Amino acid sequence: MEPPIRVVLVEDNQVFREGLELVLGLRSDIVIVGAAEDGGDAVELARELRPDVVLMDYRLPGMDGVEATAAVLAAYPGAAVIGLTASANPRERQALSEAGAVACLSKHDELDEIVAAIQRAGRPTYRG
Prior knowledge:
single chain, alpha/beta, Rossmann fold, five-stranded parallel beta sheet, 22% strand
């Protein structure tokens, strides 16, 4: 049995962040190791906790999700970043991808889709 996928959540909306943390935390294959409400904290958590996956909001105070994605990957290249946004246009999604995100999902996607993306990104064979 593989160890659970270690995830850091980066979301400035406290209610959404705590809800996602609660729902994902019920799964045996995913463990939430940290949560941040801005990009700066996300960088520190990535460096300190070395997560498999960072679930990154696009719209954050201070640095946006693109800047935070690049900074997280510079701090800890072993993480896979997944963008999770309520509304990002195609240009913003492309910017996330160029910054190193392996996927960009909508907060309106089904939980099963978000979990599947975490599972794909959290396994080393996916990241190559």
